[in-house]
Amino acid sequence: MLDQFGRKIDYLRVSITDRCNLRCRYCMPDVASCERHEDILRYEEILRVCRAAVQLGITRFKVTGGEPLVRRGCAAFIERLKAEPGVEQVTMTTNGLLLDQELDALLAAGLDAVNISLDTLDAAKFTAITGWPQPAPEKLRALLRRCCESGLRTKVNCVLLEENREDTAALAALAAEMPVDVRFIELMPIGFGGSMTRVDPDEVLAGLKELWPDLRPTDEKRGNGPAHYYASAALMGRIGFIDAVSHRFCADCNRVRLTSTGQLKPCLCFDSTLDLRALLRGGCTEEELTEALRAAIWQKPRAHRFETIQEITERRTMSQIGG
Ligand code: SAM
Ligand code: SF4
User: Fold this and answer.
1) Ligand nearest to the CA of 94
2) Tens digits of residue pLDDT in 96-146
3) Ligand 2 site: residues with CB under 6 angstroms?
4) Does residue 247 sit within a domain?
5) Which residues span the domain enclosing 60?
6) How far, CA to CA in Å, does 139 sit from each of 5, 101, 119, 128, 279?
């Protein structure tokens, strides 16, 4: 459907849990208190929301978290979502730690693509950023290769931080080693990200252009999101940037978000949500659910206000929102 500003909304990010096995500094650094199990939407309830979304022309879904793979039954849920009439695409974003053991089930479920978050290939820095005590980057590199070999469209997401500024070349080089797109995400002032120093994505791009002088912008469509991409003859994959703060892309925003507790979030920046859990558990009909969704999407704000800290009303962490 179109919102009040004429934007086509066809993409829903679905968070299935606020729990996570990592403690990324910018997202969920403490053992934050998690939602009670009974407050999290059951898979059946999430499917009802997705069906209503399909009625409004939302055909592409991103399964996220917290860490989606810590919730039992994730692959079976994806299989059911994929089987819903009108659902064209189901993708996932994950930190990858549990993906090796789940990959076959996810492929059988029909997962269309995966984004794996990886902020550094340096094991000690990985631990410093994520709190994960074991050396993970080499395993994740092997996992990326396995995903590519399985035919799954695979991307790497790296949040730009002061800690990994020096690691961007090595991460970008993954796109030379295998057909993955490597995307650099500008830190957003949401949750703990608000108190950390942002790294300028343009500086990172300039550094990468020194390594690959033929790096050029490309208009190829590489997914559902706001990333802009660069190609080089030396790279199999593309280098992407998602720079919501320095290069605002609100005019082209195509998405809304569903938190694990059933709050529909029209914009990342603001705390206003529609309580779909109350509707679902209050016995609403499918029509009522669809109409409530329609009204909330229509009201989607024109743009974020990330540049004016006082105007950011969202107090949830990214792990509670889903990224
Ligand atoms: N656990 C999964 C993962 O890490 O991919 C899915 C959830 S995570 C919240 C989704 C994405 O949000 C990740 O790529 C993560 O790096 C990103 N993210 C978290 N906090 C962020 C922030 N403050 N600014 C920008 N991206 C952020
Ligand atoms: Fe967990 Fe993803 Fe947040 Fe890291 S970014 S703490 S992996 S939810």
Assistant:
1) 1
2) 999 999 999 999 999 999 999 999 999 999 999 999 999 999 999 999 999
3) 20, 22-24, 27-28, 65-67, 95, 117, 318-319
4) no
5) 11-155+252-321
6) 44, 12, 14, 17, 43
Give the contacts of 235 (CB within 8 A, at least 6 positions apart).
172, 175, 176, 212
pLDDT digits (tens, 9 = 90+) for 199-257: 999 999 999 999 999 999 999 989 888 899 999 999 999 999 999 999 888 999 999 99
CATH of the domain at 78: 3.20.20.70
229 forms beta bridges with 218, 240
- Measured from the CA of 66, which atom of ligand 2 is nearest? 8
**How close is the Cα of 120 to the center of ligand 1, in Å?**
14
Residue whose tokens read 């206000």: 305
Q: Which among 208, 202, 201, 139 is positioned nearest to 170, based on CA atoms?
A: 208
Is 47 part of a structural domain of the chain? yes
